[in-house]
Amino acid sequence: MDLEARAHSEHPDELRLWLRMLTCTQLIEKQVRNGLRERFATTLPRFDLMSQLERAPEGMKMNELSRRMMVTGGNVTGITDQLVTEGLVERVDVAGDRRAWRVRLTVRGRKAFIDMAEQHEHWIVEAFGGLSSKEITQLHRLLGKVKQHSNSPLAEAEK
Predict the structure, then answer these.
(1) More confident residue, 94 or 20
(2) For the residues 120-143, what does the mean pLDDT come to?
(3) Residue 152: which pLDDT band, with cuts at 50, 70 and 90?
(4) 66 occurs within a structural domain
(5) Is the pTM here over 0.70, yes or no?
(6) Residue 72: its pLDDT value, please?
(7) Residues 63-75, buried b or exposed e (16+ Cβ, 10 A)?
(8) How many CB atoms are closer than 10 A to CB 55?
(9) For the chain, where are the alpha helices, taking DSSP H only?
(10) Percent of the chain with pLDDT over 90
(11) How many domains does the chain have?
(12) Better-scored residue on pLDDT, 90 or 155
């Protein structure tokens, strides 16, 4: 049973909408996770770390990676260790700080990521294949309004 099935008609429409959005997110994420595992023998967290590094060609410090990925430093270290062993990322000394490392994609890692990112994009486009271009634009706009309201000062005060 998915999360949406738990809602009943007596629940507010907002709750039922939230559960539908969550269910859709989980279904798409499951497809992406399965695709990454089957096609590239990798995981979504590894893909996410490589995605962050792809946006920063000079590399990133471990604490910045941890912050951007919203995971603990230990998680980032474990994933980084695996990717270093596979030659997909490298650690580089940070000038003036002997305790810090900058992590960046290797040439091989960048090529592997580009292949994964192209397929990832295809999976996401496919997941929304049941919607017209107009419906996608409308849904994006409406979710933008939800996001804006959730980030409003009033919403912050209510937390």
Answers:
(1) 20
(2) 97
(3) low
(4) yes
(5) yes
(6) 83
(7) eebbebbebeeee
(8) 8
(9) 13-40, 44-54, 62-69, 73-85, 107-127, 133-150, 153-158
(10) 71
(11) 1
(12) 90
pLDDT in tens, 3-28: 656 666 677 888 889 999 999 999 99
Which H/E stretch holds residue 96? none
Distance CA 127, CA 15 (A): 23
Higher-confidence position of 37 and 96:
37
Closest CA to 46 of 31, 59, 36, 60: 36
User: Does residue 26 form part of some domain?
Assistant: no
Q: State the residue range of the domain holding 61.
A: 42-127
* CA dihedral over 54, 55, 58, 62, signed as positive or negative: negative
Residue among 26, 27, 7, 23 at smallest CA distance from 15:
7
CA distance 104 to 79: 13
Cα(99)–Cα(103) distance, integer angstroms: 13
Residue of 32, 21, 10, 26 whose CA lies nearest to 142: 21
- Across the chain, what does the average pLDDT equal? 90
Tokens 């910045």 sit at which residue? 64
Within a domain: residue 158? no
For residue 13, tell me if it sits in a domain.
no
User: The domain spanning residue 46 has which CATH number?
Assistant: 1.10.10.10
Token code pair at residue 159 = 């937390």
Q: Which two tokens stand for residue 140?
A: 């994006």
